[in-house]
Known about the structure:
This protein folds into two domains: 1-43, no CATH class; 49-171, no CATH class. It has nine helices and no strands.
Amino acid sequence: MTNLETFTEKLLQIVLVGQPELEHRLKQPQLRQLRQRLTLRAKTHPLSFEETKAYVMQRLRIAGSNGHMIFEPEALESIHRYSAGIPRVVNLLCEHCLVGAFVDQQKTVSAAAVESVAREFDLGDNTTSQLLTTPRVQNAQNFDLLEALKTLATIADRLRESGHEVSKEEKL
């Protein structure tokens, strides 16, 4: 997005990146002039199963995985099914499954573990498509806070289930 330039160079470039809600907001009549300044648009589409699998494997490699198969093949299928190939939801499922596996001292993540996490977040065949089309009621900060609180609650529940006592020092 730009129109500040000289004869030889552009003076300012702004990149807008967002979720589907950004596109919805940009369609508002009062943002017509801003919309007219957008010179390039790119939109990501849901990942196929193979792309989802490759995405998860690449993220694990970047995080330092040694190539050990952490997610069982059926777990990867469940991740794709519940996420509908949306990277944000893939990340959510994988993160919580990995935390659960760590707390439960499991070396692999099963399809049952993915389904458990999907239930915790009320993900189903229709829910993921609603995540894509329903504008958020909360602002971004509230959404991030809510996600962090859900992660902490999941960790606390898993620790309690494993019989681990959480001391005051660990709570801080």
